[in-house]
Amino acid sequence: MSSTTTANADWRLCVAPMIDVTDRHCRFFHRLLAPRARLYTEMITTGALLHGKVARHLDFDPAEEPVALQLGGSEPQALAESARLGEQWGYNEINLNCGCPSERVQRGSFGACLMAEPELVADGMKAMQDAVSIPVTVKHRLGLDYNESYDFVRDFVGKIYDTGCRVFVVHARNAVLKGLSPKDNREKPPLRYDAAARLKFDFPDCTIVLNGGINEAGQAAGLMEQFDGVMLGRAAWHNPGVLSDLTRLYCPDARLQEPAQVVQAMVEYAGREIEKGVPLRLIVRSMLGWMSGRQGARLWRRTLSDHSLLNRNDPLLIEQAWSDLKLCALETA
Description:
- The N and C termini lie far apart (59 Å).
- By secondary structure, the protein is an alpha/beta fold.
- The chain folds into two domains: 8-250, Aldolase class I (TIM Barrel); 259-332, Four Helix Bundle (Hemerythrin (Met), subunit A), CATH 1.20.120.1460.
- Strand 10 (207-211), helix 10 and strand 11 (229-232) form a beta-alpha-beta unit.
- It is built from 17 helices and eleven strands.
- The strands form two sheets. It has an eight-stranded parallel beta barrel, surrounded by five helices. A two-stranded parallel ribbon has the order 7-9.
């Protein structure tokens, strides 16, 4: 059976699984900014793994580690087979999605709607635990629709706890299954950090990672004092520099690369990926918000968004954008 007793420090800083965002190129970039963070894949369905091209979904660069595979699914045997593939591919954790509220996911009978079926979730967790030796964890919401009863989430976590799971990533909002878009579900249901904190009190031997509404490094550092870890989502996409800022606060001994070193590493990485046929635009899109708040940030973003430049597939475009930004900063100093 999988053990999830790894030190809490392993989950101190996490980057959330985000569909169409946290692909392997994004994760490589985030690793350069946050050497101690735990990175998550975008949600990958069991059907995609069992009936599609496994390498397309599971390939990743060893530099990304530790990296967790998030699965979307509900059928225990399919989850077990997918988890086994994840371990064989070298992932450090298998995470079950019980939080996504999208209609597409609901039609597949997984994601947030699984919170209404804790027995089924427990069966899936047990099947995955029996299949792999790495941690099997769950990411979930606080409740469904407009029922804010703490008992609901406590009982859900308790049922999964009984399988041996000891790591819970808690998005501190409800999931509204009808009437709200996924974007609205990330913003409109009220945040209830107090309910997540009660889970930490009621399950003191668990690692409780807080997700939802965490946008700034100082805020995240404060929440780290209440929880075993924090998980940043859209903030890491819109302003990736927050990962480095937070790393400096909670882990001052971490060796962070200077921006010029990150640029050089991404140029070299892009060169390798372009040789494999990957378009440059897919590699740099996670970098667009990196310079937010700096002089020349608009020029940086414009250069790396210019289709005519991107279509050349020249990795040195990243270096050009960096040089232009520095020149702009000098001219306006």
